Amino acid sequence: MKIILSHGRGGTPHNKEIYHLARTGKAHGYTCETVDDRDSEDPEERAARLTARVAAEPEAVLLAGFSMGGYTSMLAAAAHPDKVKGLFLIAPALYCLRYRVQHYPRISPTEIVHGWDDDVILYEHSVRYAKEAGATLHLVPAGHFFYAPHELAQLCRYFGDFLAQFDAEPPP
Question: Which secondary-structure segment (H or E) carries 71?
Answer without folding.
Answer: helix 68-79
